[in-house]
Amino acid sequence: MTVFTYDHIHLRSPDAEATARWYADMFGAEIIRSVQSDGRPRLDLNLGGVAVFIAQVPAEQAVAAPPEPPYLGLEHIGLRVEGIDQVVAELKEKGAEFTVEPKTIRPGVRIAFLRGPQNVHIELLDRNAA
What we know:
The chain is α/β, with parallel strands linked by helices. It is built from two helices and eight strands; from the N terminus they run βαββββαβββ. The mean pLDDT is 94.
């Protein structure tokens, strides 16, 4: 049987630099700069151990608008945190837009959702909430 392992998340952005800075500012993601085999610059992130590739989309390229949840397919990215209420307060101070405020979904688990660049939805999960 083939063994599959996680590799990356791939985002597309009209401004890869701004998108990378947003993830770095909000979540402390490490920005990794390199050069692709065709000589074009490349931007990747290390977001809590998760590899995130950010592809620059040329202005002239036709693309569909980002969807609004709920929808079928990949809907959001989930990030685990501790002390979700304090984390949400800190992210709001940085300008984060929350679409779902912190709420308890079952004993010990609280979640919140925020909107990232290009309407990427990001869930924060506190699995040790008091």
